[in-house]
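haha ok so turns out i had the wrong file open the whole time. this is the CORRECT one, sorry everyone. sequence first:
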Amino acid sequence: MNTVSSKTTQKATESHLKKYRTHSAIARKVVAFQELINLSDKKSGREAAALLEVPNSTMQSWQKHISSQEGSKKLEEFFSTPVGAEFLQKTVMSVMKLMKCGPGGIRGMQEFLRNSGLDQFVASSQGAIQEFWVRCETHLLEFGKNEEERLAAQMKERKITVGLDEMFRGKRPCLVAIEVVSNYILLEKFTEDRTAETWKKELEPRLTDVHAKMDQVVSDLCGAIRLVAKSSDATHSPDVFHGLYEISKATGGALSSQERAAEQDLKKAEEDLQKHMAKPQRITAEDKANQKQKQIDLECTRDFFKERYEEKRKRREEVQEAKKELGKIYHPIDLATGKIQSAIVVIKKIAKQFEVIKSRAKAAGLSGSSIDRINKAYRAFVLMGSYLRSFFVFFIAFVMSMKLTLEERRFFKDIVFPLAYIEMIWKRLPKKEKERLWTVLQELQKKFKNASMNEECKEALMRRGKEAAEHFQRSSSCVEGRNGNLSLNYHKFHRLSARSLKVLSIVQNFDSQRSDGTTAAERFFKAKHKNLFASLVENVRIPGRAQRQHHDLKKRLEGREKRHIA
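then structure:
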């Protein structure tokens, strides 16, 4: 049987590489298309598109997109013109260059105006931009004050969980307090010290302003912060990161160094053995016996160093695995089964992992400072166990206050709360942990969906489940991240005044949005607020056109000569 073609696979049509055109090129094509179809000898849309070397379907989609855009009609028409498209290209490119490669502050603003061509219409001198930023700061401070007062007046006093930490710059601490669920910044202020009295002095007025009471405090083991929590009748939750960090500092470098040294010894022993085996054999029986004995000695040395290397490698891996397990254990539910685990079970699991860490550290002969760090980490995890006990006391009271039936209570404990907790921490889990937990999550979702309850009841229980899950806080990462952001701003601007710091807090609270489109203020006050950027655009005057300077003597003389000749 003869084959029609030698190719095993064929395509009916040839594939073409997609052409990417700039906004200005598209705008010129659209304008030319309109002119062609409006000529006296009118051409069809298909003929006009063919003359412009654009598929008719592509041209129709460009026109449809332009006509369906939202916003001002005049703005649409402007950006559809070649001039508007070129301006859009330059503006976006200027912003990208500034954000990725350019300076901040006034110099960055001047660079943006110059690159985008807007310096022809907006004064870009240092004085003009400085005055403009002062006007912006003044409006931002007023906006933040007014909106916070308005939203707080609508709120009843409630208990919140606050993350506390300090950032140090120039030997002065900056006290940072954030409501961890909504990420609303309550306090950012440089002070002379970080004592408990200073913390209370600065924090209590802010809590009064927003009608809130501090119920829980998440932080490291700073004595002043723990004293603030105790004096405010708030529960202190130690940050799990700092406990794990102490273990890493105590064991990571030391055990890795021992492993590398053992690996180098093993490598040298293997090289010596290979060199000896590559030597030519001696003729006499005595020389052969000596060579054989030396080879045996070298093999014994190699085996000794290999055994020692494997021992040190295994020791480091066991400590690392125990440290990872500590992070997985410290949850109100068992991530392996998706069921609530008691505080006693968690404490026993923690103690078991620390037995591994302490025994391996002792066998490795770590220094006294490393042992002290391990003991410090152990004290932190003991406090975490105490916090877990207090959380389950809250959880029992929380469930009892809902006044559920026996069946609903069991459903809430076994399905709703574990599901709400796993969904809350899902984004923060590493990829491998998500893969391991995926089956548990699917099983809980299936049980929740198939439960013999009406949808309204299940939704109400899920809302309460999320509320209970959010009450368990084991990390102050929001404060740590904010400290890093403030540190970068401090380096960028060389200083942060009290006024600038307050402005940064307001922008973070009322303008920065999460993926769901909500700001920290919306989540904290559970109400909408005015658009901060729109308020700036509406109320703050931008610099006018640059004025011609007449103090340049050379330019004045040239002008006089031109007038004299004329």
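The first helix runs from residue 23 to 37.
again sry for the mixup
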